Amino acid sequence: MLFVGDDWAEDHHDVELQDETGRVLGRAKLPEGVAGIGRLHAMIGEHLGEDDEATVVVGIETDRGPWVQALIAAGYQVYAINPLQVARYRERRGVSGAKSDTGDAHALADMVRTDRHQLRPVAGDSAQAEAVKVLSRVHKTLIWDRTRQMLRLRHALREFFPAALVAFDDLTAPEALELLGAAPEPTAAAALSTERINEALKRARRHGRAAKAEAIAAALRAEHLGQPPVVATAFAATVRAHVAILGTLNAEIKTMGKEIEAHFSEHPDAEVYLSQPGLGVVLGARVLAEFGDDKQRYADARARKNYAGTSPITRQSGKKKVVLARYVHNDRLVDALGQQAFTALNNSPGARTYYDQLRAKGVGHRAALRQLGNRLVGILHGCLKTGKPYSEDIAWAHHRKDLDTAA
């Protein structure tokens, strides 16, 4: 067996090649791209005979990108190692705090040589799952960007135009963006007619437009503290910029949602995901994207829960024992599972009962949702393992049996 440690950067890779005894066979700094991967293959080939069928194991701190795909395509066993694990492993070899790219490559090679049984190999997800991941991650990133941009707009309005914050509950709504774009400062906004506001509400397809138009007009015309005219004009220019960016983000989020639906619907596991309580197309695609579809990736439901970050961790020393929520997790997956758990309260009687029982025991809202999410991950694992869609009776049968026994 040959072991490769690959410390990657944007434009180059520091690599080290070891044999089974830990003897260093070679080191190199390789450029990113075809030339670099070719030199790596040649470097490995120098230590293999023509008839050798040696296994090549690679440790690298990422699980995506063309370089990783090229390593997998070459038939190498690739282990994506968390940088925190590499840092802790480096501390085992020395306490000076010294760090270098060649040193990290050496640590990575050592790790896959001695500790690969405790590491997770790169999952063999399908191309369809990878496509869904690309789209769902961009979609979520755009939503996060829209939230940040909305907060910037809100901050600007609070500084010179507080009436707008009273008039519009949602600054990302189409009617709010249209009216703020047309009248981005207090004087112009106060001059907006009720008919003009009603037209914007109509284009946004709002119900009860007459009452809403009157309420918005009254809020915009109310007296508030303001800024000098020249300062208000400057703020108005920033509002126009924020409004334009938010309008573009709204359009791209909608477009990306359609792309997600088109790709997700073609995945063979889509039916199972959509059958889960609280999961629609977008949330289902996010959960699929972050879990992947490699059937061998999770040994059991517990492994999937641990990866999801919904299962708790225990810290025990002597007589002290504390159960805590995991703080190192996949943010995108935890966010999607939290939304699923919240939505499932209205879609699944079993989920609602489970949540209510936790709350009755004094468990807080967030902790109860996290435990419900953990339970739903286990249910999802069972459905994916059997290939069968969600069944309310089967999913909560064991829980109801426990309740009957306790009663």
Automatic annotation (TrEMBL):
Ranges where the Transposase IS110-like N-terminal domain occurs: 4-162
Positions of the Transposase IS116/IS110/IS902 C-terminal domain: 274-355
GO biological process, one term: DNA transposition
GO terms of molecular function: DNA binding; transposase activity
Domain of life: Bacteria
Cross-referenced Pfam families: DEDD_Tnp_IS110, Transposase_20
InterPro entries, per database record: Transp_IS110-like_N, Transpos_IS110, Transposase_20
The protein, known as: IS110 family transposase
Organism classification: Bacteria, Bacillati, Actinomycetota, Actinomycetes, Micromonosporales
